[in-house]
Automatic annotation (TrEMBL):
This is Non-hydrolyzing UDP-N-acetylglucosamine 2-epimerase. Its EC number is 5.1.3.14. The gene is wecB. Residues 39-358 form the UDP-N-acetylglucosamine 2-epimerase domain. The keyword Isomerase applies. GO terms for molecular function: UDP-N-acetylglucosamine 2-epimerase activity.
Length: 370
């Protein structure tokens, strides 16, 4: 049975369903205090991806507010979540609904709130890859059409919204709460050393993550990517997303000996891996932000990115799998490392969550003004 232990009436309903959403919504929930209420859809239904991350972000695990979402098709997930969330919001009407990013959960939460006339606040609004073959891009476009308050992480994100005819009075440059999350949760040097030892990860190597369909759903591309990781010349730690694990088994793709496959890790452990790494290789959106706080070089193995600010600031470079080794060498050049050491994070000053919490509390007022 779906969890309804928390009454949403009059609260700011903070909706999340995936690991990245937990990480970025946690600072917002902490800033909201008693005004906030958590709604977990269960899109990431594996406890390895949720409970441990909730705890590492200072939140207790909770039951799913929507049953039967995990593992469904995209259409099934969105339809079921819209239906169940709208029903819950009708019976326990929140003062505002906060969604984050570009997931199916964020899409569904925005639809459910909008259809009921509840102010919808979009955290991390205005990202654009301009590649509509990406499910995330479609979700972003839909949420932007529905949201009432748009919390853009950067001025470029805000410009994307204004160029898309979003009313200027509803767009706010808040920064990204990932800065607060990384700053608050990054372990000390002593704890970092302990966590690396516990997982058998050597400091100074490479940390990689792979989970996006453009990489996992193409066996040839996935094979080339893993081969590139094996040719970097240093040990590679690969915490394996469940989707990637299934893809490796389904396609029969071999993992090179230099790549150490690990189970998914909690957020603090991943930050420990990141702060000690020589280089990161990833197709994650969140990692593109996190490296700017920890000042680490990153090769983004994707055809496009919705976070060009990380590339422009010199923290990351886009790469096809076949070019991974070449781009890794480029990111580790003395010139590149010096630029990274001197560049501030483009994602804000660490006060984003407070700004977002204020806007969420005042969402109804903002809605009346737009």
């Amino acid at each position: 049975m779906a969890d309804e232990s928390t009454d949403l009436t009059g609260k700011v309903a903070v909706v999340f369903g995936t690991r990245p959403e937990i990480i970025k919504q946690a600072p917002v929930l902490h800033a909201l205090g008693a005004d906030g209420a958590r709604v977990f859809t269960g899109q990431h239904y594996d406890p390895e991806l949720t409970d441990a991350v909730l705890r590492s972000c200072g939140l207790e695990p909770l039951a799913r507010a929507v049953e039967g979402v995990g593992g469904g098709t995209r259409a099934q997930q969105v339809a079921r979540m819209v239906d169940r969330l709208a029903d819950r919001f009708t019976r326990q009407r929140p003062r505002a609904v906060v969604v984050q990013g570009d997931t199916n959960t964020a899409n569904a939460g925005a639809q459910a709130g909008h259809y009921l006339g509840i102010p919808v606040v979009h955290v991390e609004a205005g990202l654009r890859s301009h590649d509509r073959s990406m499910p995330e891009e479609t979700n972003r476009l839909l949420i932007s059409a529905l949201a009432d308050v748009h919390c853009a992480a950067t001025p470029e994100n805000a410009r994307n919204l204004l160029d898309g005819a979003v009313p200027a009075g509803s767009v706010f440059v808040t920064g990204n709460p990932v800065v607060e999350a990384v700053t608050a949760l990054c372990p000390s040097e002593e704890e970092t050393a302990r966590l690396l030892a516990e997982h058998g990860v050597a400091p100074g190597g490479v940390v990689a993550t792979v989970h996006r369909p453009e990489n996992t759903d193409d066996p040839a591309r996935l094979g080339v990517l893993l081969d590139g990781l094996g040719r970097l010349g240093v040990p590679v730690a690969l915490p394996l997303h469940p989707r990637t694990r299934k893809a490796l088994a389904a396609w029969g793709v071999a993992v090179p000996a230099a790549v150490r496959v690990l189970p998914p890790v909690d957020y603090r452990t991943f930050l420990a891996f990141t702060r000690s790494a020589h280089l990161l290789v990833s197709d994650s959106g969140g990692v593109q932000e996190e490296v700017t706080v920890l000042r680490k070089p990153l090769v983004v193995v994707r055809t496009s990115t919705e976070r060009p600010e990380s590339v422009a600031a010199g923290f990351s470079v886009l790469s096809e799998p076949a070019d991974l080794v070449e781009h890794a060498e480029r990111m580790l050049s003395a010139e590149s490392l010096a630029r990274i050491a001197a560049a501030p994070s483009p994602y804000g000053d660490g006060l984003a969550a407070q700004r977002i919490a204020t806007l969420a509390r005042d969402g109804a007022v903002v809605l009346q003004q737009v």
